[in-house]
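forwarding from the other thread:

> can someone predict this with cytidine-5'-monophosphate?

sure thing
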Amino acid sequence: MNVVVGVTGGIAAYKAVGVVRALVLAGHEVHVVPTEAALRFVGLPTWEAISRNPVTTSVFDDVSEVRHVGLGQRADLIVIAPATAAAIAKLANGIADDLLGTTVLASRAPLVIAPAMHTEMWQNPATVANIRTLRERGGTIVGPADGQLTGADSGPGRMSEPDEIVAAALAVASGSSAAGSTAGASSSSTGDLAGRRVLVTAGGTREPIDPVRFVGNRSSGRQGVALALAAAARGADVTLLAANLDVAAPTGVRVVAVGTAEELRRAALAESPDHDVVIMAAAVADYRPVEVATAKIKKDDQGDELALRLSRNPDILRELTAARRAGQTIIGFAAETETNRDAQLALGRAKAERKGVDLLVLNRVGWTEGFAAETNEIIVIDAAGGIVAEATGSKASVADRILDLVS
Ligand code: C5P
């Protein structure tokens, strides 16, 4: 297969060497088209040596071969890795002011884009809109992953790993929709949630003990935020009920901050009727302190032991499914510490039935897995208890897999 790999000017360009190498080793004819900025990160000799083909960035080289359109016309697949925010903006607007731009514009080949940028840039409404445009035109967006970025910051924006990009690209080129499969890449759905209203809950509720303390859980809100962003990128109008997130609340979606299970319950019941899809990714406290002290509890008054009495919180998800309006899709999560797959599935099946959800997303949590992690491993079952998807990968790619099912 004739593959063009476009490389744009971000530090993740060094990881794109792995993408080119994997494609060459898989037997494909690879032409690398770096931008001028990309060459400041990884030099031309590296691209020529790895791709085993001459490399140029200029539309004025090899003019007799009409190279500025020839590369695109001959391509069976175009992969852009990394795709910076600027490159994505240019692609979305058909700007062809360099060899990569003309190549993409002159091509009918499937386009696979692996974004890499800082979280604020990825979540900026301009980028969200550009990504949506590219998806609507049939482009496939792989990642970005959620993790450590170049500076001290971390969050969504890290380029997906080369093997993930290559797996997704080859799946797209072979016409398979497996791009969102267990390889962990995003799917190529095109604005498939346009016009839909999606309500996502994220984070963990905190139940006050006194003015300075609470009963809480370790949910970071990453998976819920990834779902909200992925739904927005696929065209949905998204409302995020955010309970004590450890990560920045996303821009480009409507965010309602909540603290306790009761606040989340009230907001969810009020918002749900206006939404076509409800995704309950939040970790809701099952119990809350019976009494909330109005002043800070003092150890001098308590002695060596302090007993907290807790009472059961209402099950919000059950209330939402009981009030489900026609056509509404409701999805629950089940975080379990159970390690045995069959036992985990049995718990999930019972829960799906008890809660009356359309889909239940099962994931394992533990001291290191699930909550605070950058990645997730899920099994999704439907109302009848059948397994409808399994996915492993970044929380962004897992979000896309769940949204494939919603779609
Ligand atoms: O029963 P369990 O807590 O395992 O169920 C998890 C699912 O139910 C999640 O989707 C969670 O958001 C939701 N839930 C809820 N209200 C509760 C407890 C959990 O909506 N009180």
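Residues 242 and 257 are 5 Å apart (CA to CA). thats all i got for now
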